[in-house]
Amino acid sequence: MKFAITDIETTGSYASGNSIIEIGICVVEDDKIIEEFHTLLNPGISLPPFIIALTGIQTHMLASAPSFSQVADDIADIFKDAVFVAHNVNFDFSFFKAEFEALGMTFNPPKLCTIKLARKAFPGMRSYGLGNICRDLQIINDAPHRALGDARATTSLFYKCLANVDFDVVQKLMGRTTTENFLPQHIDRAEYDKLPERTGVYYFLNQLGKPIYIGKAKNIKKRVRSHFAGPLNTAKLQGFIRDIHQIEFRETGDETLALLLEDSEIRKHWPPYNRAQKAKTNYYNIISYEDQRGYLRLAVHKGKYASNIIQSFTSSIQARNWLIETTERFNIDLRLIGLDTGLEKKEWPEIDEHNNILFDALETLKKEQASYVLHKQGKAKGEVAFIYIEKGLFQGFGFAPYEVQITNLEELLTYIEKLPVTEINQSIALSLLENPRLWKKTEVSTWETSESL
So what's the pLDDT on residue 188? Predict the structure, then answer.
């Protein structure tokens, strides 16, 4: 079996919009190098200063070098019956694939990553970056950050790995469908294997253990895998994959709970690779107050905190609609609820009469504004999952064991995970109140005399 151990230098860190400027390949068969291939390539542009500083390659050095199209056939012949091997193989592979596709050619040899192989051969190393692991294993690299120098160093690392693992490990790693081929370089297969094929929320953590992306899934394992299935051809995607050092998860057993938890966790941690749900939640509270003339009034107050709150919403339209519906229902003068009505010339109502009407309306609404517990089978046998909605506002969710025999709200709230009100979870809560679907709905005021959840 032949292995084409490859390294490249490029104009940038991602295949889309960048080009290869140097290729180094060591072809290995029967424990020896049978061929070496090296060439500079002319990308047709001036090199960025940071690439010049990193590699030492100057723009003028590439002026007489061939283009990729001129060496494409030679490269295709090398990989025709060889395994594509590289340190962080998906990076190098993405550039070759993009270059060949630009020429209308396919490029799809089997792949092998020496980072993954080194993790199997030398578990527990402080770092698996090429420079660090070569130093730790006393591999000399005479030309770091040059394609042929790094390819030769990778070849030496490859030999050392083969001496420490059975060859069936190599064959498994280079299988076209193997998990190892698409996982980020810092993620072990064992960590991926621990992911459940059940509903919940997953977290991609960086080297410091902080979330860089949070997502929800009906099948956590399948969804995590889908993040790494496509080509790594953008700077953002390559940076994203490179930054993932750990994967964690929380099972919820229910898609609604996963959506509620995801929304809350994104707003809590503000992961850099999550775009949605980062906007600050606005609160629009219906408040009551008495004006200088003695009229009891209603108004919309924007902000999380206010006194005399009657009802809260997460959009101004919801708050305005509630005011209009309330005034129509109880025949309240529109001028006394903060709306521009065009009724300025109409005679103002008698103060006591108006105040009595509005007071009675608020008392009626207060009695009607019930609190509810939505509940169903939990994520495991022997437990109940619940969502608590207090006077129309989402409060949180939790899981409680059946054997506790919960019969009142105080007992239930010892198991709740309190979450902040947001546009998303409030919308979900109101939707569930109108149509519980698979959830059972219990009104808190009647709970004391009802059976336990």
Answer: 81
Residue (of 3, 35, 7) closest to 159 by Cα position: 3
Confirm if 199 and 255 have CB atoms less than 8 A apart: yes
Residue 452's pLDDT is what? 59
Neighbours of 330 (CB within 10 A): 14
**Residues 230/16, Cβ–Cβ less than 8 Å:** no
Place of tokens 């992911």: 195
Read off the tokens for 243. Answer: 């930054």
Cβ distance 269 to 214 under 8 Å?
A: yes
Q: Residue 3 CB: number of other CB atoms within 10 A?
A: 22
CA distance 211 to 266: 9
| CA–CA distances in Å: residue 271 to residues 196, 204, 277, 380, 453 | 22, 9, 10, 29, 36
**pTM (2 decimals)?**
0.58
CATH of domain 189-269: 3.40.1440.10
43, amino acid identity: P
Judged by phi (left if over 0) then psi (alpha if -120 to 50, else beta), residue 173 lies in alpha
Low-confidence ranges of the chain (pLDDT < 50): 449
User: Which CATH architecture group holds 2-181?
Assistant: 2-Layer Sandwich (3.30)
**Residue 184 — φ and ψ, nearest 5°?**
-55, 155
- The span from the CA of 361 to the CA of 441, in Å, is 26
SS (H, E, C) the chain: CEEEEEEEEECCCCCCCCCEEEEEEEEEECCEEEEEEEEECCCCCCCCHHHHHHHCCCHHHHCCCCCHHHHHHHHHHHCCCEEEEECCHHHHHHHHHHHHHHCCCCCCCCEEEHHHHHHHHCCCCCCCCHHHHHHHCCCCCCCCCCHHHHHHHHHHHHHHHHCCCCHHHHHHHCCCCCHHHCCCCCCCHHHHHCCCCCCEEEEEECCCCCEEEEEEECCHHHHHHHCCCCCCCCHHHHHHHHHCCEEEEEECCCHHHHHHHHHHHHHHHCCCCCCCCCCCCCCEEEEEEECCCCCEEEEEEECCCCCCEEEEECCHHHHHHHHHHHHHHHCCCHHHHCCCCCCCCCCCCCHHHHHHHHHHHHHHHHHHCCCEEEEEECCCCCEEEEEEEECCEEEEEEEEEHHHCCCCHHHHHHHEEECCCCHHHHHHHHHHHHCCCCCEEEEHHHHHHCCCC
Domain boundaries, the chain: 2-181, 189-269, 284-368, 372-449
Phi and psi for 141 in degrees, rounded to 5? -120, 105
Report the distance separating Cα 112 and Cα 174, nearest Å.
5
Closest C-alpha among 228, 196, 215 to residue 271: 215
